[in-house]
Write a structure and sequence with these properties.
Layout: E1 17-18, E2 21-22, H1 25-45, H2 50-75, H3 79-88
Length: 109
Amino acid sequence: MGNSVYAINKGINKSIEFKGLKAQYIWYLAGGVMGLLLLFAGLAIIGVNQYICVVLILPLGGVMVLKVYQLSNKYGEHGLMKEMARRSVPKLLKSKSRSVFYTGNQDAE
């Protein structure tokens, strides 16, 4: 038959990646950029000199980009969500009565 004219997408079921950022970190970076844009606009509206705004926003943007890439490299695609879930699990549970664990006792609270 010969070669097919259709290209095969080898990236099926893979998470999106953009310039080394994986999955949700792209959205974190976009949210940070939007936040910095709003901060710049707010500072300009209240009358702060534009050069001061730029001198403030550029380092903040650089730090934000570095932190997002750092999180992406450290935790990977799902690691940050797993870490946040792990932190929300309590270290221990306290109970003043064992009656909750008895299957025959339906009245226990």
